[in-house]
């Protein structure tokens, strides 16, 4: 369900097309080689926005109807990031933060529109049109409203400082310089010109980040937020990004820190700008109210995309599940489920519509498999379901393809290996054999993971609270709990303090 961010009410648009979104693969084996996934398509109704102010807060700036260019970019982005996340409490919290920031910004009369993306990735970005995007993964990582406001203020600064247009001009100049150098015969001159242009562009981008940080911190302070939250959350995001959490397993796009690196110089500059307004502890963080707004927020995989739990993938709506062998790491995306052993073998699992009157053997021969070894096709049964398997060879890579006819669609396993061996064949057959239809009882027992806000009880420790989390590998519980709550190794919890845990 899509909701417009509005302080009093969020009006609804059509939900992105649900279910396991499988993209048609014109060259499936090439896609498997790169562990690539195609973004699913979505449908969307026009956005509706109300500008009614929340009690005691400045009104949201006026929002103009989306133009064609904005709508196209908007649809593309939300398709790439799992659709739009609907949660009235979170929407209200974000809308109030944005309203305060816009009022305090360098362009308080400018129109901004905010979308919460249904992605566990920690990411935020802005378009020149004033469209701001923040993922639910970033929202749940923040521990107070000032930390989330710091990210949004940074993105608003990119828009008000006109960074996108400036960068486009710089990129055009760099491209022109490289093109002009092509007339020179000396390859050394061409290489020097290329390196100079690329270095200039990288330096320009870094300068924009520093400028957006400075503008953002000043906006934070003017809006009454904690200006030190920017440096604090940059450090927190870097720490979380280094953690091999279940969130990282679902991340398909570059995160906020990929394009906004948390360098020591950047953190220190953010602190230095914040000191212009006072010592740490100034500004309103509203930690408890912010944390309460997160209670029940989806964490990790969306139910419409299925769940990854260790080596198992399961999908409630489709009623299917399978497991990969030991040593393989699963990664869930909106277009396919991917896995790799980290060395030589990659796996892709997706679903397609195949007419009932087309046999699976004929489907394998229909041309979508490059390098198919024609006499390798074999039919079989998997869990009482019709199945077929085949092999393919492409540019030194060995492929094993398995298809299973389930209710309403055909499920495909594609294994690719640069060094096939007996273990590769065994892994393929073991994964195929694990495919099963879930019973109604099994589907009813499966629940998505959510953020739960709990008060620390007397004598509770980091270890006992982390032990209460579900859906997390045992060895990750303590470090993930510490990262979610921004706790250092020597941090003592106080009785009654609110903290985040992961539960179902």
Per the principal axes of the C-alpha atoms, what is the gross shape? globular
- Rounded to the nearest angstrom, the radius of gyration is 25 Å
Chain oligomer state: single chain
Largest sheet: 7 strands, antiparallel
What is the helix content?
25-40%
Number of domains: 3
The span between the termini is: 21 Å
How many distinct beta strands?
A: 18
Strand content: 15-25%
Number of helices: 17
Structural class: alpha+beta
Residue-averaged pLDDT, rounded?
A: 77
* Uncertain residue segments: 1-68, 181-185, 192-204, 246-252
Strand order of the largest sheet: 9-10-11-15-14-13-12
Explain how this protein is built.
The chain is of the alpha+beta class and 504 residues long. The protein has 3 domains: 2-17 and 40-294, no CATH class; 303-445, Protein Transport Mog1p, Chain A; 450-503, Membrane-bound Lytic Murein Transglycosylase D, Chain A, CATH 3.10.350. The chain is built from 17 helices and 18 strands. It has a 7-stranded antiparallel sheet with strand order 9-10-11-15-14-13-12. Strands 6-7-8-16 form a 4-stranded antiparallel sheet. A hairpin with a 4-residue loop joins strand 7 and strand 8 (320-323).
Describe the structure using short key phrases:
Protein Transport Mog1p, Chain A, globular, 504 residues, 4-stranded antiparallel β-sheet, Membrane-bound Lytic Murein Transglycosylase D, Chain A, 17 helices, disordered N terminus, single chain, alpha+beta
